[in-house]
Design a protein that fits this description.
Layout lengths: L16 H18 L2 H7 L2 H11 L31
């Protein structure tokens, strides 16, 4: 049964070792490939080179999003007139 009390495992805020090792491994691969990327791009046709650069752009230039400012409407005064019949 679950008691809600943590009895083992990582303490809160401790990074996962497997995740850290995987990220470092991938970072090393990417760093090694970056030394060759200029030569590899030069071997591509112009269309292939542009496609490759376009695919890399999101990692360098952040995507922009439209921002709009909505000004609050000024409150309106509403007058309700009630006509009562005289009986």
């Amino acid at each position: 049964m679950a008691t809600g009390i943590k009895t083992g495992g990582r303490t809160k805020g401790t990074p996962n070792r497997n995740t850290t090792e995987t990220r470092e491994f991938i970072q090393n691969i990417v760093n090694n490939e970056l030394t060759w990327i200029e030569d590899l791009l030069a071997e591509l046709t112009p269309k292939e080179r542009i496609d490759a650069v376009i695919k890399l752009l999101p990692y360098i230039v952040p995507k922009t999003s439209e921002v709009s400012i909505i000004e609050p409407e000024t409150p309106r005064k509403i007058l309700i007139k009630v006509n009562r019949r005289k009986e």
